[in-house]
Amino acid sequence: MFLRRLGLPWLLLGLLLLSAIPALAQDDSTLTLTPYTDEAFEIQGVAPEGWQNAGPGLRARQSAPGDIVLIAQQAAPATLAQIWPSLLPQLALSEIPESSGTYQGGTLEWTLYKIDVNAGGMSVAVDLALHEGEGISYIVLVQGPPEEYDALHSGLFLPVLDAFAPLEAAPVSDLPYIAEDVTFANGDITLAGTLTLPEGDGPHPAVVLITGSGPQDRDESLAGGGIAIKPFALIADHLTRAGIAVLRYDDRGVGQSTGDYSIATSADLATDAAAAITYLQDRPEINAEQIGLLGHSEGGTISAWLGARNSDIAFIISMAGTAVNGGDVLTLQNERILTADGASPETVQAQLDYLEAAYPLVTAQDNDALRTLATDYAQQLLDMASEEELAAIPDQAAFIQQTVDGTFDFFDNPWARFFLSYNPGEDWAKITVPVLGVFGELDLQVIPDQNAPALEAALTEAGNTDFTIVTIPQANHLFQTAETGSPSEYAELEQTFDPAFLPLITEWLLERVTVAE
Length: 517
Known about the structure:
This protein is an alpha/beta fold. The chain folds into three domains: about 30-165, Protein Transport Mog1p, Chain A (3-Layer(aba) Sandwich); about 175-325 and about 425-510, Alpha/Beta hydrolase fold, catalytic domain (Rossmann fold); about 325-420, no CATH class. It is built from 14 helices and 18 strands.
């Protein structure tokens, strides 16, 4: 997965990974439901006491080995039309089912679905509730054996719907700057965002923020798995307090922006950022000569693409951006993350061999060969698995199919084909405006050892006389102070930036722009 394509936090239901057991005949109307708040999904409600965390927004009963009962409570910055394509395969459905009605909860009105799933040789009864709000959708799901449906429906599902509510946003009336909701156009796509303006008439220098990979909202929310940090909200607040205007926006097809993210390449997304620059140039509060970019992860890569083609950019901050070919990034990323998470050398090597064999098939769009490769790789993983690991995969055919589906979900799209063929170093070698490249020492997604020297070499080749490259000690890909840098620990760390990060980018900018008095 390139740069953790964290975006819409799709449900991970686990329907094919859990084996069915006889109904436990317990009365779920006696469940003890306790209040909880999930800051990552920005929701609150009730959850069963004593159930185990099973993933982002998921709790599993786990009353016995193979217990399939779980509940999901999640939110996504997307429309229901965008969410359904992810839900359908997990529910073993080919089309959206007919609703079983509506239900008025304590805060939201829900559309309900009763779905009987037959997958992996088991039967699962699913209660699903969906609500679409303004730029965000909410999901509640309860699954269990058919014999327990009535008890789970009345004792868990409906009480959860009654208690479920979005978290109220903190009041912003005391902010020492203006926060304005704005829209701007890129052709037939409307992009919605927030422009924060320092006090005073200006003209103010401005920064356009470009999100990392995957469909993300204007705050670059990483909702899921307890990751509550909102990098772009933090950056916008800090820079605007220092006198620099900031425009951040929902990716196309996310939140209140229109368009289809699924067919967009990095080059396409660069045109959205270009439209943001054009919008700012027409704002009287903005100094049109001092508009620059700050891109995180893939956003840094997009900054290179745009910086080599757009003469209106005054400066670039690359926040864990790449400077080498995408395939090289993906290969080293997989090696470092798997190793950090304790995978065996044999497993790591199998993954690397698989990726290297897949790349040319992806770029050639040879899907038949890619399917064969993915199938063989899944079987190889099963052959390498221990008896304990195999016991957790009761349906090996389903495991193989999921591996193949996952391969195509990641690789069979325009974004992946562009990513594997694009070398941002070639564009960095054309950029002569001031550049700040910031890396995290412990970043396992955009490895500083791989990308920092390449960025320096490219900017030197460009004849750039004003660039700074900094690697922050102990920082990860999100620029948190980290222990290992592994994505698996993101949620466990303090949900804010390393103390060195915001002062670094602010001081660098203030030396190169003119802040209005």
